[in-house]
Amino acid sequence: xxxxxxxxxxxxxxxxxxxxxxxxxxxxxxxxxxxxxxxxxxxxxxxxxxxxxxxxxxxxxxxxxxxxxxxxxxxxxxxxxxxxxxxxxxxxxxx
Length: 95
Prior knowledge:
Blueprint: H1 2-13, E1 17-19, H2 21-29, E2 35-38, H3 44-52, E3 58-61, H4 66-73, E4 79-82, H5 85-94
Parallel strand pairs: 2-3
Antiparallel strand pairs: 1-4, 2-4
């Protein structure tokens, strides 16, 4: 879990992590999102909205909360989009 959080922090600093509902769904609609990370306390609504948006990338259900993600990334949210294939692959490998 710590490795995943640190990868998300690196991705954020690289400018390739969308944070929050609006940023994530904008990236999904425009085809930039390679993976979407949902925290364990995210509502089922977010997952249903991803299905409705016809997201074909990876959906990662993380084992950490919004608070923990906020500490690692710098902004508290329950949904994140990874907009880089290298980061998406590295995040998938950590799971």
